Task: structure prediction
Amino acid sequence: MNYKKLGNTDLKVSTICLGSMTWGEQNSENEGFEQMDYALEQGVNFWDTAEIYSIPPKEETFGDTEVIIGNWFSKRKKRKDVILASKVCGPMRSYVRGGGNQYGKKNLSEALEGSLKRLQTDYIDLYQLHWPERNTNMFGKLGYEHSDNESWTEFEDILENLGRFIDSGKIRYIGLSNETPWGAKRFLELSKEKKLPRMMSIQNPYNLLNRSYEVGLAEISIRDKIGLLAYSPLAIGHLTGKYRNNEKPKNSRLDHDRDFWTRYNKPNREHAVEEYYKIAKEHNLDMAQMSLKFCEIQPFVTSVIIGATTMQQLKTNIESVNVNLTEEIIKKINEVQKIYPNPCP
Ligand SMILES: NC(=O)c1ccc[n+]([C@@H]2O[C@H](COP(=O)([O-])OP(=O)(O)OC[C@H]3O[C@@H](n4cnc5c(N)ncnc54)[C@H](OP(=O)(O)O)[C@@H]3O)[C@@H](O)[C@H]2O)c1
Result:
């Protein structure tokens, strides 16, 4: 396994991070346990979850993934071996603390206490804001529609409240998710100006079908030491090649929750996938491993958050760290990006 520093902390996280959002939905608790056991054995010390998991989000499964992880901590007694990331959700439907903004003092505090309880732990290593409260570009939304009449929790208040949790030892570090360059920069400036805790990571989508992070955010990641935690690195499975030719394998994510994943139904997706598939074949590479390794080697990436529903997938994905992408392969990948830039933003 490879390791990198998380932001400007002293934490060394594995460059493969174990994603968890299928546990409690597509995967059972036992399957989640098996994944956690195996990943840790392979040196994957960085795990990601969120209070709203499992996905797709539903009132009846809210918190279920954290419960599974908490049960694992309780049974295995290995809490200290893991650098655990979780998230408080942004504005949600009414079943989450009545809906609306979630990053004010009261909701933030309730959210954190709920996560700690479900996770059966005293602390979370990286506590992330799942998505901005303000209306901005996220989850594939294109075009920016500004409104002067929006209300969201002042960033300064969010940082102050998160700072209190850090002081009390309930969280160690903080991070962003689904954030834009403006949001990331504003948080960093305020931390400096007001001597408040600083964000250490940005968890955004990044994969061969969506390299939009490279415009704007990548530079911030490197210059300001706030690395990317790349989510959906296989574009929800498209970059394994299994959905080529309109295939919909049984029990795959698209078979399971087709209506939830419309974000990836975009023109040019199929063409781009076909080109990346050809590159993998020409160079005798597993397409999933090639796609993951491309993310891992980017200098602005701290860790690649993998997702797996079977042990075979998990093994393949973790093993991607040992794949070598030659300059020739990278050049070919970049040529495809020029022809089909970010087909699934
Ligand atoms: N912050 C956020 O808003 C956000 C959003 C999304 C995800 N995340 C985090 O990122 C993690 C990973 O995201 P993701 O699950 O979307 O990642 P992904 O790598 O794009 O997709 C993972 C899915 O692809 C399929 N797959 C994975 N490896 C495979 C392989 N080797 N061969 C064939 N199929 C394979 C599996 O689905 P099937 O077997 O069902 O086909 C698996 O669940 C999540 O668990 C979560 O922790 C965060």
Q: What stands out?
A: The chain is about 35% helix and 15% strand. Residues 19-22, 26, 48, 130, 177-178, 203, 231-237, 240, 242, 252-253, 288, 305-309, 313, 316-317 surround NAP (CB under 6 Å). The CA atoms of residues 224 and 233 lie 23 Å apart. The chain has a mean pLDDT of 97.
